[in-house]
Write a structure and sequence with these properties.
The protein is of the alpha/beta class and about 230 residues long. It has 8 helices and 6 strands; from the N terminus they run ββαβαααβαβααβα.
């Protein structure tokens, strides 16, 4: 029913480029700090997905990789939140879905990601995607390929603490206990099965995301070192 309120989005978005995708599970930023990165030594069309439970630190860690190593960070969640803030029927529909802790129709999310990737070279870090099997199938239907998925492992107890602390300043409508419980259930019911599926395909790299942001960052870098190429 929610899908109908969005209208139909083409399964193969305009401006499709053949490329491989890196996806992280959080916030979106299309800007790139190149620094001393030697882009010729790595693939510019690599795609890495970064996933983890709500509050795992996907956006924070992807932003650090963007800033330090010139990777393109795209957050599926932030792209959706930006759309939800618009005074449109689509924005209102996305806003309601996010408040309920549910997953936005795949055609919408994939279209937003395609638009964000268009016109800039990777490697790409896509965080917060894919969140279920339908997301993955819609993404692969575009003809793009991803290299692997990084999963940030954190206990629900720690995630709850992080989210409630963040909710005091974030202003996000889903950083409250009622929404947090719904988001955890959605993650367990819909996202964990896709992680298990990709693990069977040999596409998962796990990172212990407990501890300080600096400690987690070092563990994450060790899992994607083939992309961390500097002069």
């Amino acid at each position: 029913a929610a899908c109908a309120s969005y209208g139909r989005v083409a399964s193969t978005p305009r401006g499709l480029r053949s490329s491989r995708i890196l996806a992280c599970g959080t916030a979106a930023s299309s800007s790139v700090d190149s620094g001393s990165v030697d882009r010729s030594a790595r693939s510019s069309d690599s795609i890495i997905f970064v996933l983890g439970g709500p509050g795992a630190g996907k956006g924070t860690q992807c932003e650090r990789l963007r800033s330090a190593h010139g990777l393109v960070h795209l957050s599926a969640g932030e792209l959706l939140r930006e759309e939800a803030r618009k005074d449109t029927s689509l924005g209102a529909s996305i806003s309601q879905i996010l408040k309920e802790g549910q997953i936005v129709p795949s055609e919408v999310t994939v279209q937003l990601l395609e638009n964000a990737m268009d016109g800039q070279d990777g490697p790409y870090l896509i965080d917060g995607f894919p969140r279920n099997r339908d997301n993955l199938e819609a993404f692969e239907a575009t003809g793009r390929e991803f290299d692997f998925m990084v999963v940030l492992d954190v206990s629900e107890e720690e995630l709850t603490k992080r989210l409630l602390d963040r909710g005091e300043t974030s202003g996000r409508s889903d950083d409250n206990m009622e929404s947090i419980k719904k988001r955890f259930k959605t993650f367990r019911d819909q996202t964990m099965p896709i992680i298990e599926h990709l693990e069977q395909r040999g596409k998962i790299r796990r990172v212990n995301a407990d501890g300080s942001p600096d400690a987690v960052y070092e563990r994450l870098v060790s899992q994607i070192e083939e992309l961390i190429v500097t002069k």
